[in-house]
């Protein structure tokens, strides 16, 4: 599996966990195969744990931990190891272009956050973490509103 495909899939998973938008799109969850739904939920739990670790590390000045956790989110190891070619095809047919865009943005933000961690730039870390959180909220409100009806965009 390519790194690009892995990143896309991780973003898809993240979108199932957190999001923001004023107009809710049709939820993608019902369109996913059982396997994809389980994989995405697994990935989202990993992203959620990574985001929590990053938050704690940022406020304690643990830049190396910020960098490591953000890099893991960027690299999305779970998806790279578990998706078959058919899974990727099924995923691409189940999610809209806007979802893919949010996924790409999220992983780009994670890469930038990892760099800010390596640079020990707390201000930039905070800014990027906030953008990542907003990306999660947007994805959840637009594409996973069936699972997170209380999430609204801002």
TrEMBL record:
GO terms for MF: electron transfer activity; heme binding; iron ion binding
UniProt keyword Signal present: yes
UniProt signal peptide: 1-24
Domain of life: Bacteria
The keyword Transferase appears for this protein: no
GO term, biological process aspect, one: electron transport chain
Keywords associated with the record: Signal
UniProt cross-references to Gene3D superfamilies, sorted A to Z: Cytochrome c/b562
InterPro entries: Cyt_c/b562, Cyt_c_II
Protein name per its UniProtKB record: Cytochrome c
Source organism (scientific name): Vreelandella salicampi
Organism phylogeny: Bacteria, Pseudomonadati, Pseudomonadota, Gammaproteobacteria, Oceanospirillales
